[in-house]
C-alpha cells in the first residue's frame, strides 16, 4: 500500500524533502518488496489483458514527469520491466516534430494511449506543454492558462473511457542532480547519457519548480491525481512507483474472463483431432 | 553459443525432432544459463542504444513464427523480458485490417521495423502471407510464388540498412499442441487463451508443415537465416532463442560511443551551477 498522498489543497512542492522515504523501513526492505511484488504486478496485468480479450476496456496509464536525471528510465527498467513486455507500451515524448506542431498539443498524446488490457507509460507527456512551455516561453501565458483546463477535461474523458491514470513527478534535489550529471561526465561509459542542454535546463531550476508547483496543483483531480515521489534515493522512488501501480491494479481487480465458447464441445472437437 | 545450424541446402523440417535439445545438458542447465545471461543481453542492448544516440544505425529484428501454442508469448516474456523494456519494440501481426489490405503485404511490416538501437520482435510477420495464405488459399499460387523473392529482396535491403535479422520457427509436435490446447480448456484461468479457431488450424497441420518447409527453404539466406528451434520443451526453446540473440549481439559488438561535446568544458559549466 503506497504511503503517498495525492497532491491536494494547500500542496507545496518545496515542502517535500527529496531525500525522504515515507512508508518503507530502509533500502533492504524496499528492494526486497520491489522484487517480491513483481509477480503480483505481472499477474494483475495478465488478468487485465485476459479481460480485454473478452470485451474489457480497462487500461492503466502511468505518466512520468521529472527534471533530468531524476530516474524515469530506471523506473521503467526496474518497475515496469517486471511486467510481461507484451503487456506494456512505452512512449518517450521528445521535442515535437514539425508534423506534431501542426496539430493541437494533445494530438500526439492521444495516438499513444494504451489500448485495453495494457499498462501504458509516458516518459514525459502533455505536461511538457505547461512546463517547458511556461519556463521557456514557447507558448503565451494565455495559451498555458487555457491548457490546464484542456488537460483536466482530457483526463476526465480518459478515465471515463476506462483508463486508470496515475501521474508521478519524480522529485530530486538540485544537489542530487549535480552529483548525477557529474557522474555522467566522469564515466566514459555514461558520456552518451549526457547532453549539454541538460545544464541549460538546470540553470532554470527555480522556474521549473514553480512551473511544477502550478501544474501539479491545477491538474491534480480526484480521478487523475498527481503523486510527488521523493527521488533522491532511487531505491525509494522505484518502490513508491511500484506501490502506486499495485494499488491501482488491485483496485481494478481484474478477473479471468468466462469463456464465450462451449468448453465441453471444444474438448470433444479437440479430442477428435 | 547457439548449437543450432541455420536452415540450408537439403533441410527437411520433418527430420527435426521437436523434443530434441541440442547444445544444452538438461533443464537445470538451460534455466541457469537463461537467468545468468539476462545481464549480458541487457548490457549489449544498452550499448547498441547508446551507439544509436551518436549516429549508430544498427538494430536487431527477431521474427517469431510458429503453430499455435508453440510458445511465442513465453519467448517474449522470458527471453525478451530480460532486456530493458525501453530497448524493445514488440508487434503482434493479426489478420490484416481493411486499411492494411489496401496496401502491399510488406506495408504494415515496414511500419513496425525497429529503429536504431532497438531489438524489434515480430510475433508472426510477413511470413503469414506465404503460410496461412498458402494453406487457406487467401492468395493465388502465382502471388505466393512471387512473394518468396519479394521477401528475400526486402530482407536483404533491411540487413544492408543495418538491421540484424534472426528468423525463428518454434517447432512443436502435433501431440504437444494437443496437450497444450487441452490444458487451456481444462483450466478456467486459461480459457481466455483458447480460441475455437485454433482447432480449425490444427486440422490443417500437414498443410502447414508443408508451407513451412517451402517457406523456410526458399527464404533462408546467409544474411537472414532461418533457425528451427525444437519447442516441445519450453525451457529449451527459451534457452535456444536467447542464445541466438546473444550470438547476434556479441557479433555486432556495440561500443560505448565517444562524446561529441567537450567533456572538460562541460565539467566546468556544470560545476558553476
TrEMBL record, chains A, B:
Residues annotated as domain Polyphosphate kinase-2-related: 26-253
Top-level taxonomic group: Bacteria
Single GO MF annotation: kinase activity
Alphabetized UniProt keyword annotations: Kinase, Transferase
Keyword Transcription attached: no
Segment forming the signal sequence: none
Keyword Transferase: yes
InterPro entries in the cross-refs: P-loop_NTPase (IPR027417), Polyphosphate_phosphotransfera (IPR016898), PPK2-rel_1 (IPR022300), PPK2-related (IPR022488)
PANTHER family named in the record: POLYPHOSPHATE:AMP PHOSPHOTRANSFERASE (PTHR34383:SF3), POLYPHOSPHATE:AMP PHOSPHOTRANSFERASE-RELATED (PTHR34383)
This protein's name: Polyphosphate kinase 2 family protein
Species per Swiss-Prot/TrEMBL record: Antiquaquibacter soli
